[in-house]
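Minutes, project check-in
Item: structure for the 259-residue chain
Input as provided by the requester:
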Amino acid sequence: MPRSGAGKSPSPWPYTGTFLRKQAIGKPVASGPRAWTAFLADKSSLWRVARNASLSCAALFLTVAVSWLLMETIRLQRRLAEVGAELAESRRLEQELKRRLDEQRSRGEGLARQLEISHNRLAQIDHEIDGLSKAAGSTQTEASVVSLALFPGLGRDAADIAQTRTAILSPGTKRLRLELGTDHPRPIRYRAEALTAEGDLVWSRDSLRERSTKIGKVVVITLPVALLTRNAYLITLSGAVAGDNYEKIGSYYFEIIRK
């Protein structure tokens, strides 16, 4: 009959378990901080070896930790120095930008003042040009219009030849302004017609009104010089009567001389 322990290989350390059991018999097992205190105070050789190994590992870990802390401190100090240098450079750049901004602002204010002066000067020049243009236009208008006052009865009869009015037209004359004197007793609407000496109608206008001037009541008409191609013209003035009919009330004769 086989033995109960057959088939198992013998332990290479047959007395280790017995020794450990003997060492543990009768000794209370501590836990927490007391376990470490008991572990460190134990005088047995096995525990002494384990304790020395633990202390060596702790010392090695502490050495590594201290070395890492020193390296990290050096790195942080180097980084702090770099950050300080960057901060100083940033402050320098900020001061430089502020100085440039102040210069640009001062230059901009100067340019704004110069621009305002230029605008004022341009406005003054524009005003002067406008005044000169108006004066030139007025002069040109006056030069381009010739005025002539006519009275009824001054015409082609022999007795009136000496009193015939003459309009002198320059090359720049554009319009001939005629003031037709009238002694009609009451204000009415007038019709004026311009005819050549041969009786050809060249211009006509209805619904004219009289005006009061220094020479009395007149009816003012303006003839385009481009229509006046002859040297003598007759103006007939008619007053409105019942309806749209007109009655002739005066004739005016004038001649034209071109320079």
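Outcome recorded: The radius of gyration is 65 Å.
No further action items on this chain.
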